[in-house]
Design goal:
It is built from eight helices and eight strands; from the N terminus they run E-E-H-E-H-E-E-H-H-H-E-H-H-E-E-H. The protein is of the alpha/beta class. A six-stranded mixed β-sheet has the order 4-3-6-1-7-8, sandwiched between helices. The longest helix has 17 residues.
Length: 212
Protein backbone atom coordinates (compact mmCIF):
# COMPACT_ATOMS: atom_id res chain seq x y z
CA UNK A 1 0.00 0.00 0.00
CA UNK A 2 3.04 2.28 0.34
CA UNK A 3 2.99 2.99 -3.38
CA UNK A 4 -0.55 4.37 -3.26
CA UNK A 5 -0.53 8.13 -3.70
CA UNK A 6 -3.28 10.62 -2.96
CA UNK A 7 -4.33 13.47 -5.20
CA UNK A 8 -6.46 16.15 -3.55
CA UNK A 9 -8.49 17.71 -6.36
CA UNK A 10 -10.10 20.91 -5.11
CA UNK A 11 -12.54 23.38 -6.56
CA UNK A 12 -11.43 26.98 -6.04
CA UNK A 13 -13.10 28.96 -3.28
CA UNK A 14 -15.97 31.41 -3.80
CA UNK A 15 -15.28 34.15 -6.36
CA UNK A 16 -16.77 37.63 -6.53
CA UNK A 17 -20.13 36.65 -8.01
CA UNK A 18 -23.75 37.12 -6.91
CA UNK A 19 -24.67 34.33 -4.47
CA UNK A 20 -28.19 33.64 -5.67
CA UNK A 21 -27.68 33.99 -9.43
CA UNK A 22 -26.31 30.87 -11.17
CA UNK A 23 -23.58 32.02 -13.58
CA UNK A 24 -22.06 30.17 -16.53
CA UNK A 25 -18.45 30.87 -15.61
CA UNK A 26 -15.64 29.59 -17.79
CA UNK A 27 -12.30 31.23 -18.52
CA UNK A 28 -13.44 34.70 -17.48
CA UNK A 29 -11.01 35.72 -14.74
CA UNK A 30 -12.86 36.52 -11.53
CA UNK A 31 -10.99 37.05 -8.22
CA UNK A 32 -11.92 35.47 -4.91
CA UNK A 33 -14.47 37.18 -2.69
CA UNK A 34 -13.76 37.88 0.97
CA UNK A 35 -15.81 34.78 1.78
CA UNK A 36 -13.70 32.79 -0.68
CA UNK A 37 -10.49 33.99 0.97
CA UNK A 38 -11.87 32.85 4.33
CA UNK A 39 -12.72 29.43 2.84
CA UNK A 40 -9.19 29.12 1.52
CA UNK A 41 -7.82 29.94 4.96
CA UNK A 42 -9.88 27.08 6.39
CA UNK A 43 -8.49 24.73 3.74
CA UNK A 44 -4.99 25.89 4.64
CA UNK A 45 -5.57 24.87 8.25
CA UNK A 46 -6.63 21.35 7.25
CA UNK A 47 -3.87 20.81 4.73
CA UNK A 48 -1.21 22.02 7.14
CA UNK A 49 -1.49 18.50 8.60
CA UNK A 50 -0.81 16.84 5.25
CA UNK A 51 2.60 16.19 3.78
CA UNK A 52 2.25 17.41 0.21
CA UNK A 53 5.05 17.19 -2.31
CA UNK A 54 3.63 19.98 -4.49
CA UNK A 55 0.61 22.12 -5.29
CA UNK A 56 -0.75 22.67 -8.80
CA UNK A 57 -3.34 25.12 -10.05
CA UNK A 58 -5.32 26.31 -13.00
CA UNK A 59 -3.96 29.63 -14.34
CA UNK A 60 -7.20 31.47 -13.49
CA UNK A 61 -6.85 33.83 -10.54
CA UNK A 62 -9.68 32.31 -8.47
CA UNK A 63 -7.80 29.00 -8.48
CA UNK A 64 -4.28 30.42 -8.21
CA UNK A 65 -5.20 32.55 -5.21
CA UNK A 66 -6.87 29.57 -3.49
CA UNK A 67 -3.74 27.47 -4.10
CA UNK A 68 -1.40 30.23 -2.90
CA UNK A 69 -3.31 30.59 0.36
CA UNK A 70 -3.18 26.83 0.95
CA UNK A 71 0.54 26.76 0.08
CA UNK A 72 1.11 29.43 2.76
CA UNK A 73 4.47 30.44 1.17
CA UNK A 74 5.86 27.00 2.10
CA UNK A 75 5.99 25.82 -1.51
CA UNK A 76 5.55 27.26 -4.96
CA UNK A 77 2.28 26.84 -6.83
CA UNK A 78 2.80 25.22 -10.24
CA UNK A 79 0.37 26.52 -12.87
CA UNK A 80 -0.88 24.24 -15.64
CA UNK A 81 -3.18 25.35 -18.46
CA UNK A 82 -4.77 21.90 -18.70
CA UNK A 83 -6.53 22.47 -15.37
CA UNK A 84 -8.20 25.68 -16.59
CA UNK A 85 -11.99 25.75 -16.56
CA UNK A 86 -13.98 24.62 -19.59
CA UNK A 87 -14.22 27.30 -22.25
CA UNK A 88 -17.88 28.37 -22.30
CA UNK A 89 -17.44 30.67 -25.29
CA UNK A 90 -20.01 33.41 -25.80
CA UNK A 91 -21.91 32.32 -22.67
CA UNK A 92 -18.98 33.01 -20.35
CA UNK A 93 -20.03 35.21 -17.44
CA UNK A 94 -23.73 35.23 -18.34
CA UNK A 95 -26.41 34.08 -15.93
CA UNK A 96 -28.20 30.90 -16.93
CA UNK A 97 -31.49 32.82 -16.88
CA UNK A 98 -30.05 35.21 -19.46
CA UNK A 99 -28.71 32.34 -21.56
CA UNK A 100 -32.09 30.63 -21.59
CA UNK A 101 -33.74 33.87 -22.69
CA UNK A 102 -31.22 34.83 -25.40
CA UNK A 103 -30.27 31.38 -26.68
CA UNK A 104 -33.21 29.05 -25.89
CA UNK A 105 -32.61 26.61 -28.75
CA UNK A 106 -28.88 26.38 -28.14
CA UNK A 107 -29.47 25.89 -24.42
CA UNK A 108 -31.90 23.06 -25.17
CA UNK A 109 -29.49 21.41 -27.62
CA UNK A 110 -26.66 21.55 -25.11
CA UNK A 111 -28.87 19.87 -22.51
CA UNK A 112 -29.45 16.98 -24.91
CA UNK A 113 -25.72 16.32 -25.39
CA UNK A 114 -23.64 17.66 -22.53
CA UNK A 115 -20.66 15.55 -23.59
CA UNK A 116 -20.21 16.88 -27.09
CA UNK A 117 -22.08 20.16 -27.50
CA UNK A 118 -19.80 23.11 -28.23
CA UNK A 119 -20.97 26.59 -27.31
CA UNK A 120 -19.93 29.08 -29.97
CA UNK A 121 -16.33 30.05 -29.26
CA UNK A 122 -15.95 27.36 -26.59
CA UNK A 123 -15.15 23.68 -26.19
CA UNK A 124 -17.09 20.51 -25.47
CA UNK A 125 -17.06 18.77 -22.11
CA UNK A 126 -15.48 15.78 -23.86
CA UNK A 127 -12.60 17.95 -25.07
CA UNK A 128 -12.24 19.47 -21.60
CA UNK A 129 -12.12 15.99 -20.08
CA UNK A 130 -9.46 14.82 -22.55
CA UNK A 131 -7.08 17.71 -21.87
CA UNK A 132 -7.71 17.65 -18.10
CA UNK A 133 -6.94 13.91 -17.90
CA UNK A 134 -3.82 14.40 -20.01
CA UNK A 135 -2.68 17.12 -17.60
CA UNK A 136 -3.51 14.94 -14.60
CA UNK A 137 -1.38 12.04 -15.90
CA UNK A 138 1.46 14.42 -16.80
CA UNK A 139 1.28 15.82 -13.28
CA UNK A 140 1.55 12.48 -11.48
CA UNK A 141 4.34 11.35 -13.80
CA UNK A 142 6.48 14.37 -12.99
CA UNK A 143 5.89 14.21 -9.23
CA UNK A 144 6.05 11.84 -6.29
CA UNK A 145 4.14 11.65 -3.03
CA UNK A 146 0.77 13.22 -2.36
CA UNK A 147 -0.19 16.30 -4.35
CA UNK A 148 -2.91 18.93 -4.37
CA UNK A 149 -4.56 20.45 -7.43
CA UNK A 150 -6.86 23.48 -7.40
CA UNK A 151 -9.11 23.58 -10.46
CA UNK A 152 -12.77 24.19 -11.29
CA UNK A 153 -16.20 22.56 -11.13
CA UNK A 154 -16.28 21.72 -14.84
CA UNK A 155 -12.76 20.31 -14.92
CA UNK A 156 -13.17 18.36 -11.68
CA UNK A 157 -16.51 16.98 -12.83
CA UNK A 158 -14.92 15.87 -16.10
CA UNK A 159 -12.05 14.14 -14.28
CA UNK A 160 -14.38 12.39 -11.84
CA UNK A 161 -16.62 11.20 -14.69
CA UNK A 162 -13.64 9.61 -16.43
CA UNK A 163 -12.24 7.98 -13.31
CA UNK A 164 -15.65 6.72 -12.17
CA UNK A 165 -16.67 5.50 -15.63
CA UNK A 166 -19.82 7.59 -15.80
CA UNK A 167 -21.06 10.01 -18.45
CA UNK A 168 -20.85 13.75 -18.00
CA UNK A 169 -24.62 14.04 -17.56
CA UNK A 170 -24.59 11.57 -14.66
CA UNK A 171 -21.63 13.35 -13.09
CA UNK A 172 -23.89 16.35 -12.41
CA UNK A 173 -25.34 14.33 -9.53
CA UNK A 174 -22.21 15.36 -7.63
CA UNK A 175 -22.42 18.95 -6.43
CA UNK A 176 -18.95 20.47 -6.69
CA UNK A 177 -19.38 23.34 -4.29
CA UNK A 178 -16.81 26.05 -3.77
CA UNK A 179 -13.81 24.72 -1.79
CA UNK A 180 -15.04 21.13 -2.13
CA UNK A 181 -12.39 18.41 -2.11
CA UNK A 182 -12.17 15.24 -4.17
CA UNK A 183 -9.69 12.67 -2.91
CA UNK A 184 -8.21 10.42 -5.58
CA UNK A 185 -5.77 7.56 -5.22
CA UNK A 186 -3.16 6.57 -7.81
CA UNK A 187 -1.27 3.28 -7.80
CA UNK A 188 1.11 4.15 -10.62
CA UNK A 189 -1.37 3.17 -13.32
CA UNK A 190 -4.98 3.68 -12.24
CA UNK A 191 -6.84 6.47 -10.52
CA UNK A 192 -9.71 5.77 -8.14
CA UNK A 193 -12.07 8.20 -6.43
CA UNK A 194 -11.82 7.73 -2.67
CA UNK A 195 -14.05 10.69 -1.77
CA UNK A 196 -16.08 12.98 -4.02
CA UNK A 197 -17.14 16.54 -3.19
CA UNK A 198 -16.24 16.62 0.51
CA UNK A 199 -16.83 20.06 1.97
CA UNK A 200 -14.64 21.69 4.59
CA UNK A 201 -16.77 20.43 7.49
CA UNK A 202 -16.35 16.81 6.34
CA UNK A 203 -12.59 16.75 5.95
CA UNK A 204 -11.74 16.08 9.57
CA UNK A 205 -14.06 13.06 9.59
CA UNK A 206 -12.16 11.19 6.88
CA UNK A 207 -10.01 8.87 8.95
CA UNK A 208 -6.36 8.46 8.12
CA UNK A 209 -6.36 11.23 5.54
CA UNK A 210 -6.69 14.51 7.34
CA UNK A 211 -6.13 14.87 11.03
CA UNK A 212 -7.19 17.76 13.18
Amino acid sequence: MDNIRKVFLIRHCRPQLPKDVPICLGKKDIPLSNEGIAEAEELKKYFSYISLSCIYSSPLVRSRHTAEIIADKKMNVIVRDGFSEINTGKWDGMSFAEIKQKYPLEYEERGKDLENYIIEGGESMAACRARAMKELYNTVRETSGDILIVAHAGVNRAIISKISGICIKDSFAYKHGYASVNILTFNGEIFKALKICADISELGKIGGIIKK
